[in-house]
Amino acid sequence: MSNPLIKPNDPRFQKPSIVDGTGQNRFAEGTPVADGAKEEPGDAFAAGAAADARPFQPQYEVTQQARGGLLLLIAWLGIGGAVIGLIALMGLFPTGYFAPLISVVPAATAWLLAYQDLKTMQLGAMDNKGRPRTRLAYWLGLFGLIACLTVVATAIWKEMNLLPDLF
Predict the structure, then answer these.
(1) How many CB atoms lie within 10 A of CB 113?
(2) From the CB of residue 136, how many other CB atoms can be counted at a distance below 10 Å?
(3) How far apart are CA 122 and CA 17, in angstroms?
(4) 129, 134, 127, 130: which is closest to 111 by C-alpha?
(5) pLDDT averaged over consecutive 10-residue blocks of the chain (167 residues)?
(6) What secondary structure, in 3-state letters, does the chain show?
(7) What residues contact 164, with CB distance under 8 A and at least 6 apart?
(8) What are the structural domain ranges in the chain?
(9) Residue 43 phi/psi, 5° resolution?
(10) Contact 111, 43 (CB under 8 A)
(11) How far apart are the first and last CA of the chain?
(12) By C-alpha distance, which of 76, 80, 96, 77 is closest to 88?
């Protein structure tokens, strides 16, 4: 079904011509070429003589502040849970293995967030001043994660209770 209000060859729906009244392309760049001359094809994407020949390297404005201190705190929480689990394994204080099981979360969080922050700092999108703290949080988070998982696996192997025996 067609629209009965639109007449054939309606000028509102015709494509405009790219040729102006003198026969020249309205969208051509530069001056028209004389009849006998040949146009030199230029490379539109080539770097100019004064431009540097290196590929484009994005320059970021630092917008994100480093959060190495927060990541260190989270990593130490993971290590603290592993220490509490180790104390329970040695039998000094019956706490069960609930603390190291829960401490897997902050240790893994510190490790993964520090990894992402280090990649972001390498790109230049994050402040580079916090790199040493973030690198320390990365390694402490990894160590805490391994320690927590080791303590939990050992507690399960020794058939310890999840929660402490209070009664």
Answers:
(1) 19
(2) 15
(3) 52
(4) 134
(5) 72 80 78 58 56 65 85 96 90 80 95 95 87 96 96 85 63
(6) CCCCCCCCCCHHHCCCCCECCCCCECCCCCCCCCCCCCCCCCCCCCCCCCCCCCCCCCCCCCCECCCHHHHHHHHHHHHHHHHHHHHHHHCCCCCCCHHHHHCHHHHHHHHHHHHHHHHHHHHCCECHHHHHHHHHHHHHHHHHHHHHHHHHHHHHHCCCCCCCCCC
(7) 88, 94, 95, 96
(8) 68-157
(9) -90, 110
(10) no
(11) 84
(12) 96
Structure-token pair, residue 46 = 């080539």
Contact 163, 97 (CB under 8 A): no
**Residue 131, both tokens:** 């790199």
The residue behind tokens 């603290």 is: 80
- Smallest CA-to-CA distance from 110 within 76, 79, 144, 71 is with 71
Q: pTM score, two decimals?
A: 0.60
CB neighbour list of residue 126: distance below 8 Å, 6 or more residues apart: 62, 64, 65, 66, 117, 120
